[in-house]
Amino acid sequence: MKRLCSLGMDRPATPVVAVLLMVAIAFGCGRHGLRRYGVSGTVTFNGQPVPSGRIALEPDSSQGNSGPGAYASIQHGRYGTPRGKGHTGGPHVVRIHGFSSEPNPARPPGPRLFSEYTITLDLPQDTSVQDIQVPAEHGVSPAAVPSNEH
Fold first, then answer.
1. Residue 108 class from Cβ within 10 Å (0-12 exposed, 13-18 middle, 19+ buried)?
2. CA–CA dist 129, 49 (Å, integer)
């Protein structure tokens, strides 16, 4: 039976291994330490909270920003990105969809309140609150909303 000494197992960790371990701890195992920041706020249309909807925040590549996008549900006029799933800061294209019915996982969303509303926000590299007012001119006309009644 070979002794552990002959296999080199009795040596202390070399400085290179220690440095590599510290770098791995400092940057984490994913995306090289990519920081993501939470964002929350309100979404209103015609001065009223949007009952339900979705908000997507995508880095604006036309302004040199890149990274993963962030998404959130709008419920009773409020939204917030899940912890650890926020934006990366900098210019973002924000797309908002709003629906007339209250959120209910048992059924699809009601008729659209407005056509997709898109804006650009320069988000801080920190947690922030971004309140968004969708202008009335983005509203969907009653004729454009499909009827659920037969």
1. exposed
2. 16
pTM of the model: 0.69
Give the single-character DSSP code of 11: S
Residue 27 within any structural domain of the chain:
no
For residue range 95-145, list pLDDT tens digits in order. 999 999 877 777 777 899 999 999 999 999 999 999 999 999 888 765 444
pLDDT in tens, 5-39: 444 545 555 554 444 444 444 444 444 568 999 99
* Residue 26, both tokens: 């400092």
Coil, helix or strand for 125?
Answer: coil
- List, in sequence order, every residue forming a beta bridge with 132; answer none if it has no partner: 43
- Report the CATH number that the domain containing residue 110 is assigned in CATH: 2.60.40.10
Smallest CA-to-CA distance from 30 within 56, 68, 76 is with 68
